[in-house]
Specification:
about 475 residues, mainly beta, eight-stranded mixed beta sheet, six-stranded mixed beta sheet, disordered N terminus, disordered C terminus
Length: about 475
């Protein structure tokens, strides 16, 4: 229970503020910011680094919690808000009688806050025509740039992200997130997602802060990128790409011929591995699936699906989710040329969603599912690509099975791994494996959560914020 004093959230990494900040007041109607505006796109501090530093290959704490029944997967808190007594006068959300307001958001240092806070977008309502462009760090209404701008800044321990600052945030329909950088939304009061926030991959294209799928004969991008196969026998090396991995492994792609399943095989089309930190510090999206391998076929294989994006919402009062936040992986592409076998690409892994507030509630979903692997073709033009991930607990389908199509692997949901592709049909090329799930983290103080989720979440470790 929260009582008097300073309410602090204890993330894995912290950076105390370096100057006094006053709370931003004011209100605005839809799409209009009540703070200072900018006439052009936000200045970037430097090019985004796609892969960032080497991440831990295992979570630093209890590890992922695997739920065998994702349909009843109810979110559990990863960290809590505690009272910690008097605070210094330099506080992120301002001070009252020597006491700090609120908590320090994850993946945010004093430099990032000082840069974005003066650009406050005030009270903002977004609908289905709205989108966040993280490359320009600006909100768009359709194709028109709005006056709501953010700031691109480096995360304390990782690649650059696009930061926005709001007094309150209300998303009434599904708003989209585009661009190549993770999205971090800092909210002074409450955030309400009654519609949805889509930060998922779309086919080969990665979500914001995610990694793209592999191109011809290449593994997926990212530390968990799906693998490609090589085979001594060129007549049998049109094999499907492996699915991307993140919080769970991606599924393997299937080989074109049995000869590459035996001793003649050199490197199989394996699924991507598990990596990253359960704390989601730094914030980064998922990895891409591999492309199908191009051996003696007359045309190129399908491309790999992109990794899901990365989104963080840090609200000082509450986060209410009535709709869905989705950062799923993209489906692998199929290659249909009609005259020769074509291998399918692997699905991309799910991305990352980090939510932190004293209270997180609602009847909605948070999903970071894997994309489906594409079908492999046997001189046929009707084979399908894998589905993009769904914003709930329904797995993305792999490419269609038939007499002339090798079925792709389904994408992962809950805490599962990506499914492997089916054995090839007669005279058919291999299919792509399904993508693994991404990471979800909840930092809160609520004892009665009602938000469902599909992805891997883990128990956090409390670390007190140091006094300057």
């Amino acid at each position: 229970m929260l009582s008097g004093g300073c309410h602090l959230l204890f993330p894995f990494q912290v950076d105390p503020p370096d100057g006094a900040d006053a709370a931003v007041d004011g209100a605005a109607a839809d799409y209009r910011a009540d703070g200072p505006t900018a006439d052009g796109p936000a200045k970037q501090d430097g090019p985004a680094k796609r892969d960032g530093p080497q991440l831990d290959l295992a979570p630093p704490d209890a590890g992922p919690v695997v739920d065998s029944d994702p349909s009843s997967d109810v979110a559990k808190p990863d960290a809590v808000l505690l009272d910690s007594g008097p605070c210094p006068t330099a506080c992120i959300w301002g001070c009252t009688a020597g006491m700090c307001k609120g908590f320090w958001p994850s993946n945010t240092n004093s430099m990032a806050l000082a840069a974005v806070k003066p650009l406050s977008c005030g009270t903002l309502t977004l609908n289905s025509t709205s989108s966040f462009d993280t490359q320009q760090c600006r909100v768009f209404i359709g194709t028109t740039p709005s006056t709501c701008v953010g700031k691109i800044s480096a995360q304390p321990t990782g690649p650059s992200a696009c930061y926005f600052y709001f007094k309150t945030l209300n998303i009434t329909s599904t708003a989209k997130v585009n661009g190549g950088l993770p999205l971090i939304l800092l909210v002074e009061k409450m955030a309400v997602i009654s519609g949805g926030l889509f930060a998922g991959a779309k086919g080969h294209e990665a979500g914001p802060g995610g990694h793209p799928g592999g191109k011809v004969n290449l593994k997926g991008d990212g530390l968990g990128g799906g693998g490609v196969c090589t085979c001594i026998h060129k007549s049998a090396d049109d094999c499907g790409g492996g699915g991307g991995g993140y919080a769970s492994v991606g599924g393997p792609g299937s080989a074109e011929g049995a000869v590459c399943l035996g001793s003649a095989a050199t490197v199989g089309s394996v699924g991507g591995t598990v990596y990253g930190k359960a704390s989601l510090t730094p914030l980064e999206g998922g990895s891409g699936g591999a492309a199908g391998h191009y051996g003696d076929a007359l045309g190129p294989p399908g491309l790999g699906g992109g990794g899901g994006g990365a989104v963080q919402i840090s609200a000082q009062t509450s986060i209410t989710i009535g709709g869905a936040i989705s950062a799923g992986g993209g489906g692998g592409h199929a290659a249909n040329y009609g005259s020769d076998p074509r291998a399918g690409g692997g699905g991309g892994s799910g991305g990352a969603v980090l939510l932190e507030a004293p209270l997180i509630s609602g009847g909605g979903w948070v999903a970071v599912n894997g994309g489906g692997g594409a079908a492999g073709a046997a001189a046929y033009t009707g084979c399908q690509q894998g589905e993009n991930a769904h914003p709930d607990n329904v797995p993305a389908k792999g490419g269609n099975p038939s007499a002339k199509c090798t079925a792709g692997g389904i994408g992962a949901v809950g805490g599962s791994k990506g499914a492997g592709a089916a054995s090839p049909v007669a005279l058919g090329a291999g299919a792509g494996g399904g993508g693994g799930v991404g990471w979800i983290r909840f930092n809160w103080s609520s004892s009665k959560p009602t938000v469902s989720h599909s992805g891997n979440s883990s128990q956090g470790t409390l670390v007190q914020i140091p006094t300057p």
